[in-house]
Amino acid sequence: MRNLAGASDLTRKLGWTILFLIFYRVGVHVPLPGINTGSLAAFFAEAQAQNPFFGLLDIFSGGGLSNVSIFSLGVMPYISSSIIMQLLQVVSPNIKRLAREEGQAGRKKITQYTRYGTVLIAMVQGMALANYVQSMSAMDLPIVTNPGLLFVFVTTLTVITGTILTMWIGERITEKGIGNGISLIIFAGIVAGIPRTIYRSYNEIVSGGSLTLFMALVILAVMAVVLVFIVFMERGQRRIPIQYAKRQMGRKMLGGQSSHLPLRVNTAGVIPPIFASSLLMFPTIILPQFVDNESVSRALSMFQPGTPLYNVFFVAMIVFFCFFYTAIIFDPKDIAENLKKQGGFIPGIRAGGKTHEYIDRVLTRITLWGAIYISAICVLPQLLLSRYSIFLGGTSILIVVGVAMDFMGQVESHLISHQYEGLLGKARIKGRTG
Question: Which of 318, 350, 378, 408 lies at 20 to 30 Å from 425 by C-alpha?
Fold first, then answer.
């Protein structure tokens, strides 16, 4: 905080980030038109007890779903569209060429396609949300005051607009603020729910419910252990030594230096559990609104968070997205080619193809351990504390800690850059004075 005083650029970025997050949090509490807010809270309290996916989806929407707000869908349509576009980069040569070969123009085209996909997904999810809300009631009171086709149309149009606005907020945070805007929106939603969780737990302890003081202490201890373990693993790296050959440039001899190539244990970050959760949510929430079939309802009941079938699919998708996202953002072939051009090599490994194979082999091994670590963090607390895992689960802790560490890392980078600029400025002043 002391260093922020002289870093005007960093202060401005932090101000934009806080301003956009406040704007988003205000929108979360703006309800959709035609909603009876009196019976809304009771309905969603019962819905979350019967279908744990609502609690998980409410976390990702920052409370927008339980409030049936204009931001009810949160960033989930955008995340789903991003998943589809990244999968298309693997199966479609044209999309892959746009992403990797056409530079900034190609990336803009990919972003444009992602936005179009976000609107389409938000339209489908908005219609499902409208149909679901107008068909339910609480305490013998309907949630929707005037159900019908007009309500479905207005609700769908409103949540599409809210999703576009949420996407815009995330992109503006990334552009004008600090950190990844979409991740910070999810982070803000999880953190905003912590006081409510603490208050609910306190009331249950006081009222003599199933949550005892001893169990609350056990939960806090588990959370502390999980938090420390996450920080330890997120900092974990495999450092591959790099040696640069000496070369003559004019009268100067360059090179001969030693460095290292850091490979993170968890290269994919918090993306795998977010992607896996969003894909598992989609059919469970959407299908019951369009398919009224007892067999489908029975199958989906076996696919709730905490069930063995859900955990198997959840872990499998986390492992898949760990390898998939790592392959997208980190290409060993490009690293090997750049090292060869710069005269760098790994001791004992021939430059070029052998270096590519070695880096790929090491990256595959540590990514496997990273996938096991993320799966354990997301599933084990849920198995040990199944009743409270929706609110205090490993997935939420992983997202909060991962996003916070990335955010603070970028803040520190800005501060270090500002200090170097100050030192260079002083050096130039002294040189001119001399």
Answer: 408
